[in-house]
Give the backbone structure.
Amino acid sequence: MEINRYICLTTFYNSSMKKNVVLLLFLLAMIIQENQAQSYHPLIKTNKFWDVVNNFDDGFPCMCHCSGLRYFYAGYDTIIENVKYARFKASPLRSIYGSIGPFCPPYYADTLSGLSGILLHEDSVAQKVFIYDYFSHQDDLLYDFSLEVGDTLLSDYTTGGYPAIVQSIENIMLNNGDIIIKFNFTDYDAFYIESIGGSQGLSGGLLMPEYPDELFCVEDQGVGLLSDCAGWVDISEIQFTNSIQIFPNPAVDFIRITGLKTNSIASIKIYNGLGTEIISRDLSINTETIDVSQLQNGCYLLRVGNNGNYASTKFIIRR
């Protein structure tokens, strides 16, 4: 009787230990997977947009940009064969001065003329992003952020079916403080970045055509991730632009700004042709004079904020 009881207790103990070990391993795997998912910065996120520009027209370079598109994700999804795709809208970029292109900043996205856009599917665990092919009705690999140095990326869409070897991987910091990974490829004058996309834009791939598109700006929740996105404006700025004036224009040593409708404090920023902020100050009166005697000849962007409205216009310095 005692022997049988011992055998039963031993069997029960061993069985419980096995269950505990299995449960422990399962929990450990879940923790590892969760940590990996937390370290990955997803590409797809609501209220995030990508501005892509092209600097060539029929083989000839434009002074600034010849054309451009904005891809924007507002949280609208499409289900195809039980797979959820994020639907990105593509809107053409326009100059606030009325031209479609060629044009220079500041520009805005013409949301009323939105194009069909693209469908993307992201696997955060595998750290891969896929694009839906409307012709083949299947996924094509767009980005693989799990690669290591020396690994090969092979994608009908991204590399045109040709192998692209990861030459180097580096960590970079975005303007929102995120530390993300940049992938550089051998024999390709191109790269792609975790949470950002490729050097030719959100869906530009890696192959470098003779006159490629260029990723100009990525903004997330109002923060320019790679730059300050100085060249773009929104609809409220277009409506507000005519309320301010700059003179003289062209300027020599100073510019005078008029047209602010309130005495409340406003901010002013001036950017050079590369989009770099070079002057920043507060305004408290309706007319303001700015010393520009130290600035070089060229075209500059002025942006004024006032009571939640913004105005953007450009001026020239010529001596």
Summary: The first helix runs from residue 2 to 39.
